[in-house]
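Dear colleague,

As promised, here are the two records you asked about, laid out in our usual form so they can be pasted straight into your sheet.

NAME FIELD: protein one
SEQUENCE, THEN STRUCTURE:
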Amino acid sequence: MLEQLVVLPLLLTWVLLVTTIAPITLSNRKLFVSMPNFGLAVWFLVFISAALATVFAVGFALWSMYRTYQSLSSTELFGETWFIEFVLSLVPWAILALIGVTLAWINIKLDPMFQSAKDIHTKLAVVGTKRREYRGVPVMEFAAEFPTVFSTKHAGGFGIFISSATMRLLSDQQLDIVFEHEFAHIRNKHYLLKRVAKLIRTLTPRLAASNALESEVNILCEASANKRAAKKFGSERVLEVAAVFHGA
């Protein structure tokens, strides 16, 4: 039964590290911004490892309980061996409870640090007019007095939606930079990564790590799209276009 005192604490310690320390150590890393695809891979691999460790820990606790039941059934009731087996059977659940309480307390403290803003286009009921195509993706213009652009599902595929204000403010080349940025989101399936991150946050709303994951995935997806646009048009021109949106 020694494994109950070693394996389970190791598994749950990893879960504790991922859900508390990882958000602090992995958030806002310059390395990830410069290598966004690597950053996205690290974030999701860390979360996957924590999920697997949690599943294995619960399974191990259930297996230990069944094994203890078999041992208790074959030993003398209330004998010395029976009592030891009984105490050891409680260890996995005591560890699970301790880790759960620790996680709850730490996340109450950390949660305000990782609240992320909603994307503006989730609040828009967009009806756009097709203006052109960019690399096979339809570009839809909609009336709005503020500069914004995003890509989303449209007519069985994906479309790039751009406000009329953006069309007025940017030159043709600057518009191509914006379209390349959005095309990168579509090609790299960033919408799927954001959806998974949002699902994790929805399933664990009080977990600071899930809030950090959603926030960082959004940031790194934008950095990845910017990097692709910069590769084609140059980083200085991408920064010029970004300034138009940030200054709005």
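NAME FIELD: protein two
SEQUENCE, THEN STRUCTURE:
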Amino acid sequence: VDAAYVETDIDNAPTADGFGLRGSVGFAENWFVFADYTDQSVQGIDITGYDVGFGGHYGMTDSLDLVGRVGYTKVELDAGGGLNADDDGYLLDLGLRGRVADGVELEGGIHYTDYTDGGDNTGLYVGGRFHFNKTWAVGAEYQSGDDADSLLAYVRASF
């Protein structure tokens, strides 16, 4: 489970910021389900995002995995006074994740979303985390897409 500060720089708009929660539950050794939630605001507009889906990882070496995800994504905008909009679609991710040193994990890959009304977006992401022990870690992730760039800084608890 990750609890995050999220900042998104949207092209031709002021920067939005807020918080995020995300988590995953593994099963059958190489598979997992995931859920992500973000709640950001900018100039009186609330932006809420949801992702849920399924993924898997394949060990390429003892310290490097190929990771893929597929899921449902939704975004809601609320400007108050009954002015709101939402859109949904699907997401695809493909990346690499690996331990590069004791307690240090890095990842990177490509992220694709396709919204029903809002078109599609392809972006790249890179991130890293430092594990203090088997339970606690801190990390950061940068995502750069067609129309927006996001930065996440988070604390992770593993159970």
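A couple of things worth noting about protein two: Residues 57 and 67 are 4 Å apart (CA to CA). The chain is about 0% helix and 80% strand.

Best,
R.
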